[in-house]
Amino acid sequence: MDAVLGQLYAGLSLGSVLLLIALGLTLTFGQMGVINMAHGEFLMAGAYTTYVVQQVVGGAGLSLLIALPLAFLVGGLLGVLLETTLISRLYSRPLDTLLVTWGVALVLQQLARDVFGAPAVEVRTPEWLKGNVDLFGAPFTKGRLFILGLALTAVLVLGVVLRYTALGRRIRAVVQSRGLAETSGIDTRATDRLTFFIGSGLAGIAGVALTLIASTQPYMGQTYIVDAFLVVVAGGVGRVRGAVLMAFGLGVLQATFAYSQSVSTAKVLLLICVIAFLQVRPQGLFSVKSRSLV
Amino acid sequence: MTALRRPVTVTFALAALLAASACGAKVDENGDSTADVESCIDTSGDSVKIGLLNSMSGTMSISEQTVRRSLELAAAEINADGGVLGKRLELVTEDGASEPTVFAEKATKLLQSDCVAAVFGGWTSSSRKAMLPVFEDNDGLLFYPVQYEGLEASENIFYTGATTNQQIIPALDYLRTELGAQSLYLVGSDYVFPRTANAIITAYAEEYDIEIVGEDYEPLGSVEGIPTIVNRVQSSGADAVFNTLNGDSNVSFFSQYSNVGLTAETMPVLSVSIAEEEVPGIGVERLVGQYTAWNYYQTVQSPENEAFVAAFQEAYGSDAVTSDPMEAAYTSLYLWRNMVEAAGSFEVDDVQEAAGGISFAAPEGPVTVNGDNHHIAKTALIGRVNPEGLIDTVWSSAGPIEPDPCLEGYAWAASLERDETYC
Amino acid sequence: MIGSATPAEAAAAEVSAPRARGPWTGRAAMLATYAVAAIVLFGAAPAMLTDFRLRMLAQFLCVAMVAVGIGLAWGSGGMLTLGQGLFFGLGAYIMAMHLQLSSAGPSGRPAFMVTGSDLPWWWELFRSPATALLGIVAVPGLLALLLGLSVFRRRVKGAYFAILSQASAAAFALLLISQQNTIGGSNGLSSFRQFFGFALNDPVNRRMLYFIAAGVLIAMVAVVHQLRRSRYGELLTAVRDGEERARFLGYDTAMVKVVAYVVAAVFAAIGGALFVPIVGIISPQNVGVVPSIGFLVGVAVGGRATLFGPVLGSLAVSYAGSTLSEQIESGWVYVQGFLFILVVAFLPGGLGSIAAVVRSRRRRPAADELPRGVPEPDAPDPEPTPADVRSGGA
């Protein structure tokens, strides 16, 4: 029983990491149709923000709390910069966006290397996130519990913002019909930038979370990016609900495979499952009802 | 259509003709071919070229950059000391880009275009495997500075890192005799070194009645399976963990390990791929008290090491740390110099001839080249991570251990598969 | 910004482009290009280059073969394949298995098997040269057929197809890594001694490999040339620019795409198969996500929708990567990144379209950035909204 619970927690933990990364993508890819391969590098920027804050502030606990909003800002600003300089020229060419942002990712990785050095930097875990808590008889480490909480909070806040605020209405309006939104007096360009800001900012927050469990180094963004895109696609593009279910579903599935198989085999099985799933439901778990023929 | 086909057909005919006329040596019955390339080392001037081939970009650059630095340091020292056979060393540097194919390409370039006398570098097993045929076909010399899985001994490679009987087996002896471990859990990255190491460990365990309670592999660079692995390690109740994880997976592993409440006291971890420069990235507090097995630590007490550490920190900053692969790389350049001076020649055949018995007072202690398998005799050191992030020696072998890459001297290892080309 | 030309016009412009461009008429220009290519590849290059540079060129030619296939699938067909590493790897590994078996010592066991276990049965399939050669073409071809049928029949396209293909390459690389005992794991396969009986360390034989690679590459370009000129080529472009319209006209658009996809896969596999004896190693690092995107760089830089663009772009990028990295080491990453960003964002027709862009700018100062004759392949129907990007749909 312990083992089963332990694996369930491992799956939830992996799922929450995937969710944090994929959440930003549901906005930038799902809502705006932009395939941002540099999303992982925004995440890296968030992780390095934590590192820098810790160097300046000192205390691991305080710096983590400062880093969260700051990383959101850093990720978001990087996103807006990318959006205004490059992506805004490419809205009609989604595949080219993918390639351009891949180039941006390359440059950002090298930049991080030149600024912070190639070796992983040390980001200390705050005392109150060390150790574990007993949940139903199996240990759940506090750091991973924090990430799970952070991911769920992010989902909640994003959901509320999209559903109930004026900003959210604007974003949804632009997504559903750009032309109509524009005629109704919405500044679609500003809305694009804002959406991109929030999506990229979420990547920054994911980066802060990752410093608790993974190493902070220039190539850390590459680790999850393919998986995160799969979560978004398989969840149904643009659907926060789908991303949540898919992230946790994939996390638990992989942990299940990993218990009986080697980790690599588990990963291969998982990828094959997702590819097969998308053959059956190319529109993902949840799809926007659309009369479009395309 | 037809008008266009004609030149294409002509091109094909031309290609076939050229290809047919260009056929060279066939492989004879022993699988050996007759052709070999003559080396073109240029010793006419007052300098001689050597190649440094390390990854300066890509994932492996984290580790290989430090090796490059210590190679450059050694070359500068040798040049300040009058060079080799009176000739100044001229460095030709290349980036392996963390890709085996690039290593093969750059090694070919260094040997064929730059005509270097020897090449220093490589890190991953795959980079070495990719370069091996290049050095054998072009009759070049490679000095490889990293501990590795053994079971290989090419004439054209000098292995200045540890082979398994100088690192893995002493570590097992230590776990068995000093820590009294009766059961082990094996955790490693998914590539050839951990797989081979664990095959050796399993054979060893059978001989000494140690129980292997689990064996897990995490893909290189991945962290996703770590919670699962730590769960299994914890519930296994093993006496100790033998860790062959490489790189970033270690960060996740030790973070999770300490978070679920495991410590060096409750279940010690002995790692063979964590050196001083990786300690800060993993987090000193997560590692304190855990064990490592190497042949060199920055804290080694000897005049040679004090000089090496001082010179290194003068060149690269007072907080720069030195580690086993860096020291092995530094040593490799001096060993080559001693070989060349003993041979009185830069020619590869002469250097190979003179290599056996060449020694050097290295920072790790005295090392001697074995002329048969081209590895070097080294002292094994078991260390523990201290709160400053350095590693203190807690046990060392009686003296330098003769290299035995094929494990011929261990009866229990007879069942292991070996590469018949070398062993 | 591309709303000015309807897809149909763009398609027409594309088809007629080779004949209308430049001072020469199309056919003469083509003939001259083939002649120049043959002279350069078979005459000038072997005469002027050292053995090392020729080996590098041979390696670049193999990568260019993948680029030719991508040019057809992506440039002409609009399918952005981010997973060519899968097919490149299949071809390469089949060739590598054959070479290892034929290079193995007396016991017949390949060199990498140091940790025990028996040779898996599927290795034996590629022991004979004939089945190995057949396998190099058939295995990736059939896989592409299956993948293509299931994907295109379901009308998965655009970004979705790109991400799916990327995931398939990622899965393939992971699969190889996890199979240490059967396929060499992350070390891959290396240490080949001979190529169908010819010693690989003989410089004369290495030249032979180069000539084979050059001949195969020219043949591939010729095949793509014929395909583009044929009715099928027009149909492929029509499907790219307006899949719905083509379908409404009664064409089986999925089949049209599958053909281009399979051809691209087979080209990639042949490139991979020749890569192995030339480079001497194949490892999962050559087949994963990053190399798969790497194959695209040259195609984008050279001009995806042109016949020679992918080849020339791929060769240029490979060459620049190799020589620049010798001089500036890690600085090459910046150059590569910025080159890619600038070309894709501002010159989607590739570097070859600079002249056309400048000319059109001069004529119409405020004109769009796209050169005439190089239509935007990825453009969905006129009004881009996320619903357009979406696959499947109703």
Automatic annotation (TrEMBL), chain A:
It comes from the Bacteria. GO terms for biological process: amino acid transport. It is a multi-pass membrane protein. Keywords: Amino-acid transport, Cell membrane, Membrane, Transmembrane, Transmembrane helix, Transport. It is found in: Cell membrane. InterPro entries: ABC_transp_permease, ABC_UrtB_bac, BCAA_transport_permease. GO terms for cellular component: plasma membrane. Its main location: membrane. The chain crosses the membrane at residues 6-27, 59-82, 94-112, 145-162, 194-213, 268-288. GO terms for molecular function: transmembrane transporter activity. The keyword Membrane applies. NCBIfam families: urea_trans_UrtB. Belongs to the binding-protein-dependent transport system permease family. LivHM subfamily. This is Urea ABC transporter membrane protein.
Automatic annotation (TrEMBL), chain B:
It holds the Pfam family Peripla_BP_5. This is Urea-binding protein. Residues 1-25 form the signal peptide. Keywords: Signal. InterPro entries: ABC_urea-bd_UrtA, Leu_Ile_Val-bd, Peripla_BP_I. It comes from the Bacteria. CDD domains: PBP1_FmdD-like. The keyword Ribonucleoprotein does not apply. It comes from Trujillonella endophytica. The keyword Signal applies. One of its GO terms (biological process) is amino acid transport.
Automatic annotation (TrEMBL), chain C:
GO terms for molecular function: branched-chain amino acid transmembrane transporter activity. The chain crosses the membrane at residues 28-49, 56-74, 80-99, 132-152, 208-227, 258-282, 294-320, 332-358. One of its GO terms (cellular component) is plasma membrane. It is found in: Cell membrane. Keywords: Cell membrane, Membrane, Transmembrane, Transmembrane helix. InterPro entries: ABC_transp_permease (IPR001851), ABC_transptr_urea_perm_UrtC (IPR017778), LivM-like (IPR043428). Residues 361-394 are annotated as: Disordered. It is a multi-pass membrane protein. This is Urea transport system permease protein. The lineage of its organism: Bacteria, Bacillati, Actinomycetota, Actinomycetes, Geodermatophilales.
